[in-house]
Specification:
Radius of gyration: 29 Å
Order of helices and strands: HHHHHHHHHHHHHHHEEEEEH
Low-confidence stretches: 277-290, 346-350, 455-468
Strand content: under 5%
Shape: elongated
Structural class: mainly alpha
């Protein structure tokens, strides 16, 4: 009896031990399977990323410096420092280069702009020093252990430089130095060229912004002086010879590489700093079965995260190389998959941005806006030769296609003028009406200047910044 009771108790204890141990054993198996899959996914994505040109080798990040006298890079550090000490009030330049004021500036507007330019003479001299150098390599810390912590002080110099240059060009034109103004305004395209050494998508965006400000100035010059064929021809040549579209794909590749190495840096940190998401009941491709507590679990988690980031970046790079209609569909599908991943990733949510389509469509907008300025200048030249604008766009010869549609830009006569437009991201813009300001921001040019631009100009509120 006693022996049977002992066997019974031993069996019960063994069953209890098994009951307690089984969940841990099962969890260990799940975690081991998760770790294997995550590592395999990462190895595959690394291989595909390299094939897609993503520079995972950090030795490729650096750019050789040109001779000091030919290098604009260090000058942007000086410009950023000068702007930090004496910021420029947008309000003082609003009359000559506001984004809503295309109408000819008044004498008062020009006088205020001249006063501001004089106050910032040292800054303007630095800007011209930088733009007088074709080469420019920005000084960035490409050896940073965590690339996401890199500082970009030069970014603060780019847009203000383009705005000051625009104001200077408008003052020159008002004083009758129109040809000089065109050449001066064309220097703004060099800001975008200098941004290229920043390599990242953020610098590409700033490059696009500098191009947009520069093209804005060219449109203003066409509005005010485009009836003179010599002016229209000079604008056409200045844009055609100097505008260079920023490297959209190169910026996306660099961002992907920097995200990869930022996650690699996290491997050197304690597991508690990784900030993982709790387990979910979803069956997502990269769902996490357990919170990282050990270094092995953290490494598996980082493998999983890096694979997800590389996959997302790679698909966007593939999309951006396709014509826009196709790229839009690929990107929307990629974005849908990405949003599903965000449900199981806190750190992915922190790295996510706005719509992928919105982010990389700026490249197509830049191409469309540039082509529209060039074609508009050609239309003005045509009028000077034939007495009126053509009935169809094909009359002036071959023209660039609308990058949003891979078809000719929209064009029609409107009275004695014309409207030239892109269909835009949604593919539905038709140029709107000469009497109503269009909604959205599809690239377009309506000539002569429409009334809604004259009536809608509003002063930009100043930040009360210090001036010299």
């Amino acid at each position: 009896m006693t022996k049977s009771l002992g066997i019974f108790i031993t069996s019960i204890l063994l069953l209890l031990c098994l009951a307690v141990a089984f969940p841990f054993w099962s969890l260990h198996r799940r975690e081991a399977a998760y770790a294997r899959k995550a590592h395999q996914d990462l190895l595959r994505e690394v291989r595909l990323a390299r094939a897609e040109g993503i520079p995972l080798d950090r030795s490729r990040w650096k750019t050789a410096y040109p001779p000091p006298a030919e290098d604009a890079g260090p000058v942007y550090d000086d410009i950023a420092l000068e702007l930090k000490r004496y910021r420029v009030s947008d309000k003082s330049l609003n009359g000559v280069n506001s984004t809503t004021a295309h109408y000819p500036p008044t004498a008062s507007d020009v006088s205020q702009a001249k006063s501001t330019l004089k106050q910032h003479a040292q800054l303007l001299a630095l800007i011209h020093t930088a733009l007088g150098r074709k080469q420019g390599v920005l000084r960035l810390d490409w050896n940073a252990k965590d690339p996401s912590a890199m500082d970009y002080p030069q970014l603060n110099a780019m847009r203000p430089s383009a705005r000051l240059l625009l104001a200077e060009s408008m003052v020159m034109a008002h004083e009758g130095r129109v040809q000089e103004a065109i050449q001066n305004q064309a220097l703004g395209f060099r800001i975008s060229d200098h941004c290229a050494s920043g390599k990242t998508w953020l610098f590409a965006l700033v490059g696009y912004s500098a191009n947009a400000i520069t093209l804005q100035g060219m449109r203003k010059l066409l509005y005010q002086y485009g009836e003179n064929p010599a002016v229209a021809k000079s604008v056409l040549e200045a844009v055609h010879n100097n505008e260079h579209t920023p490297d959209l794909i190169g910026g996306m590749r660099m961002d992907a590489a920097m995200q990869y190495w930022s996650n690699e840096y996290l491997r050197t940190r304690p597991p508690s700093e990784v900030m993982p998401t709790p387990p979910t009941s979803g069956d997502g491709r990269w769902s996490v079965p357990h919170l990282p507590q050990s270094k092995a679990q953290q490494n598996a988690y980082q493998d999983d995260t890096e694979a997800a980031l590389l996959h997302h970046a790679r698909m966007n790079i593939i999309a951006s190389a396709r014509p826009f209609p196709e790229a839009k569909q690929i990107s929307l599908s990629n974005e849908k998959e990405w949003n599903r991943l965000l449900e199981t990733r806190i750190e992915l949510a922190e790295k996510s941005n706005s719509s992928d389509v919105e982010l990389f469509s700026v490249g197509w907008k830049d191409k469309a806006a540039t082509s529209i300025v060039e074609i508009s200048a050609r239309l003005l030249i045509w009028k000077s030769q034939h007495g009126a604008f053509p009935e169809t766009l094909s009359a002036i010869g071959e023209t660039p296609l609308d990058p949003f549609a891979e078809k000719p830009f929209g064009y029609r006569r409107e009275g004695a003028g014309f409207v030239l437009y892109s269909v835009g991201e949604d593919g539905n813009f038709d140029g709107g009406s000469a009497n109503v300001k269009p909604k959205g921001n599809s690239p377009m040019f309506r000539y002569p200047i429409p009334a809604y631009y004259r009536l809608s100009a509003k002063p930009i509120v100043s930040n009360g910044v210090q001036q010299r």
